Every structure is written in C-alpha cells, then in structure tokens.
Amino acid sequence: MHGVGLIWALARGWQLTLVGFAIAPVFADVMAPQSNLVSKCEVHNKRAREEVAKQYYDAISNVRAIRAMGFKDAFQEKFDTAIDSALTTGVRGAFFEGCTYGVASALIYLAEAPLFYIGAVLIAKGTYSYLQMIQTLQLIVFSVSIGSQLMAFTHRIAKATRATCDFNRLLKLSTATDESKGILTPDLSGPVSFTNVTFSYPERPDVPVLRNLFVEVCENECVAIVSSSGSGKSTKVALLQCLHEPDTHCDRSSCPALDRHSLPPRPSSPSSLTCSMTR
Questions:
Q1: Which of 198, 206, 256, 209 minimizes the C-alpha distance to 234?
Q2: What are phi and psi of 72, to 5 degrees?
Q3: Coil, helix or strand for 206?
Q4: Could you state, in order of their start, the residue ranges of all structural domains in the chain?
Q5: Rounded to an integer, what distance in angstroms lies between the CA atom of residue 270 and that of residue 208?
Q6: Residue 178 — φ and ψ, nearest 5°?
Q7: In 3D, which of 155, 35, 52, 149 has the Cα closest to residue 94?
Q8: Tens of pLDDT, residues 83-113
Q9: Mean of the per-residue pLDDT values for the chain?
Q10: Which of 228, 197, 224 is closest to 213 using CA atoms?
Q11: How far apart are CA 154 and CA 170, in angstroms?
Q12: Arch. (CATH architecture) of 2-171
C-alpha cells in the first residue's frame, strides 16, 4: 500500500512527491531512536515481570516449607520488592510507549504543513491545477500516514524480538553444568547427635515443636525418620543445616559439615518409589 501510493503520486505530480520524499528522513530519524528506546523499556519490563513470576512460583511451590520454617516474612518481602520494581518499571515504560502514538500522529500533521505550502506555490505558478494538487497531496498524505502508523507497532515488534532472543538463548544453553564437574566433596564423617534439644519457631514461641529430643546417628548409618505430619521431621533437617538455632544450647562440634544433598526430606503424601530405599 505504501509503495503503490508513492508510485501513483509520482505519476500525478512528481514535484510535490519529491517534497514528500524529502520528509522521509525526518520520519526515519525520529523512528530509529524511538524504536531503540521502546526496545530498552521492553527489556526492563520483561525482566521485572519474570522476577515477579519467579518470586510467586518460589513461594507457591514451597509454601509448606516456608510455613514450617517461618520464612513467610522473608519471601513476602522479596515478593513485594519485585512487585514494586515491576510497577515502577511499567509506569516509566508506559510513558515512552505512549509517546510512540503521539509522535506518530504529530508527524502526520507536521508533514502536511510543508506539503500544503509547496502545493500552493505550484498552483500559484500554474504548474499544478487545483485538482492535481489535491490528488497528489492526498496520495502522499495517505502513504505518510501508513508509514507513521508503523510506529504504533514498535512496542509489539520490540516485545516479539526480545522474546525471540530469549528463546534462542535458551536453545543454545549448554547441558553441562559446573556442579556436575566438581571433584571435591565435603567431609561427612562422624556421628550426628541431638542431645536434649528443644525448639520452637520464632512466630509461635509458645508451641514447642521439639522437646527434650535425643537422637544419635552413627557414622555410615542410613536413617529414615518416618512420622506423622507436623511431628518435626523437616525441623530436624533445618537444625542440621543450621537454618535455625535451637532454644536450648546445642553443641555442633561433633557434627560433620552437612550439605543439603545429604539430607533429602520427603513429603508426607504417599509416593511410589521406582527404586529401593537403599538406593
């Protein structure tokens, strides 16, 4: 449509059409930085939305562990921070994306002013008739309007481009990770013992979860703690990982340095295992 309109305008009146061609670089000079600015805003908006989705997913997928270990305030604070950041980024980006529509409409009216003036001069000199000038002017304005309306799709083009780049980056990610190449492992030798341990979560200090607990796991011994929900299985694991401090004094000098891969907690819901418990 854009090319057909310009060719038709050249056939009707090439002098006035050349004036329209002279205005084209102005559209390009305005559209290029506007497109780059909108693209940068879309990058920031997308990252902010992804951060909100990540915090929401982490909270929902680990809601039981968060409630059990008293991490609600920490996750709530991180989620609120992500929402505030997304709101600030969105408001800032909305201003620049809204300017795209304003600039597109303004360019049309700014382009019509010199075209009307040159057309009047050509009519005064007898080069164009009034009908020829109006027809040529309408064709040029029609073509310019189509070109300026492309700026309204700048943010959509930027969004699609950013999504394509992110998807391409995911496709090119290597399956090898640094964690799979390590050769050093922490020393896990030695017994693990709980001696007269009492613990209650900070949110409910009046409700003891563990009371006078005595548990000893010898070296090279595999132990599975099985009990009803709410009896403190995850709490014992959290204490071993030093996520909480017990109410009573606990001497960890005899406990080895444990990592989370050595303490796999299982959910309370029934699960079908495809291998033996030893494996």
A1: 209
A2: -60, -45
A3: coil
A4: 2-171, 192-262
A5: 27
A6: -65, -30
A7: 155
A8: 999 999 888 888 877 777 777 777 777 777 8
A9: 75
A10: 197
A11: 24
A12: Up-down Bundle (1.20)
